[in-house]
Batch of 4 targets.
Target 1
Amino acid sequence: MNLMPSKENMGPYFKRLLKVIECLYPTPPPKEKYLYLLCFLYEETQMTEREVAYIYGSYVGKDYLDLIGDVSEARTEFVPNLEKYGLLKQQLVDCGYGDWALDPTTYDPTLND
């Protein structure tokens, strides 16, 4: 049983973050790259493992339960290269993450177009 809302029914908080992720990766990246993203989302946004799995699952079209193990791996076993992690953070900022992080409830990604 899926306890998270569908992509169509997700709230503005997640929809806006999803736009930032879609800007960063127009197509889903390989696991090596998305572990960095999962690690970043967990560490920097104060989202739970389930929320990180939900937002990434919405992006790739999978149920969050299929990705919860990857989030756990990114959180506990994955040791990111600091240079690559910093580059990811800058790329996310370039895609509007900074504006979203300042006020995720009112950030409008269409203003960046």
Target 2
Amino acid sequence: MPAVKGAKLELTCISRGSLVQELTFSPWLAARAKRLRIYRRTINAFWLLIALILALNLLRWIFPKISPLVIGAIWRPFGLAMYVWGPIWFSLGLGCMLGLFKSPSCDRQFTSKFSLVWFGRTCQNCHFDIYTLKHKPANG
């Protein structure tokens, strides 16, 4: 398991001749993980917004007799959200692609360079999960 900066090592028990270790993380690690969770939600939820806008456009083609005022009233909040959310999504995705977001555990790039599309929940290097604050096995 990779070394974690700022972690306190506590020995908990001896089991079948091997020592079991438990890591207690400092508060800053949880704060950095929380910030990454917010970035993850922002980047991944953008695709839901795009899907809703496409569904509204499909609704307009399926039911052409619906008044354009009704479609406009339904579509306007999502269109305005694109103006607010789009630049934020793009700048966060660009930050991921440039490697600006570091893993709280290993201080290396958290996501792959193609994270403009999807932001994962585990570090690509040390497999640190930002929701459970634990390291996952490399293959699972």
Target 3
Amino acid sequence: MLEKELAQATRLAEQANRKVEQLRRQLVAESEKTHGKLKRELGAARKRYTAANARLKKAQSALRRQATPANQKKVEALVKQVQELADSVAGTARAAYEAAEKLLIVKADAMLATRKASATTRAANMVERATSRTRKRPAAKKAGARAKKKAPARKKAPARKKAPAKKKAPAKKKAPAKKQ
């Protein structure tokens, strides 16, 4: 019964982990998509701002050369447009920064969760291996069965032969005594 419950709990945990991982991947994908979109928008807004600023400078120099009411209106309209674009660039930059921050947090959380999940999986595998080992062990034998037979005594190893002793060098003869 315990094995069935363990298998069911393992299966449910794996399903929950798969669902959490799927949701996490979806969240990361959405965050990356939002971040990419905001970066593109920021780049486009910066381009528009740069172009409008260049047009404003040209119009201001033309106004200095020739001050007419039409040129004055054009310059005022361009000033308003440049200010709006500057505000939109600032807002888009702020949104892109926040999206990048959220993306970083989500990715870090995903990485931590992945590591936790792998650690839990390893622990579950170790538990399963331990339970399978206990099941595979043979049942303990009765005391009467153990005293049934003694193992035969080992034979002694044959005695080694000693190496033959080395012969001593023959003693040198003394030199004959000199005659006087």
Target 4
Amino acid sequence: MDKKLFFDTTAVVDYIFKPKKRNTIENMIDKERNIATTKYTQMEIKKGYLNNLCLLYNKLSETNTLSAICNYLHSISYTPYRKNRNILSTCLETLADFFEQNESSFEKILTHLKSLTTPDDETNKRITSLEEILKLLNNPLNDFSNKTPNNKHCWNCTDAIIAVSAPNDYAILNNNTKHFNPICKAINKESITYQDKTKK
């Protein structure tokens, strides 16, 4: 495959931590190894997946029962912890500028998502959040902050943020074409998956 690849968060996690999926993704990388991701993805991994590995390590020292560990694993995910105000503040300050600089792209995504005939719950949340963020951008006060509901709206737009971040000549590598395909279509970018190739 001769494509430059822009990794979404899950693709980065799978490539680094899951050997089977790493092999599949490795075969998709072009010979010049043109791969990239966004700082937003790096933040998600640091405050989500890696943070949970540390929590799991600590949990293992507290209990000897497999059932307790399994229950704990079900209670966490590798999405970022959203109550960390310092992280949210830094992230949202940067995102406020990013949304302003790419307002037209987010407007195109919003318009296309609203045209879908049967959007799922996640897409509906994304539509609502994009509407609120774009409305906020046109507010003279432009009160982006680390308080709700702004943080919730930003998290709901993660896939859109990653897609807009990708250079135009990169395909966005993901395992969630249901959500990335319409987003990418709206801004004339390519969504490509490795998910089906790893299933047996």
